[in-house]
Specification:
This protein is mostly beta strands. The protein contains 1 helix and 4 strands. It is 6% helix and 58% strand.
Amino acid sequence: MPTMDKKGNAIAIGDFKTGYKIVDRSGINIMRDPYTEKPFVKFYAVKRAGSDVMNQEAIKIGVFG
């Protein structure tokens, strides 16, 4: 992948279906918070996901600007 500075722009073009994969992790973490807003109880939920480049030849990145 080409390097770019803060002022440059980049675009990715290619076949993302074969080149990139997004995976959902199983399970949801739920945290109970009874202290922040009395007399209410807050709940925070977190769902994790991951991704990775599977085929670098399927995606090309162009830097311009």
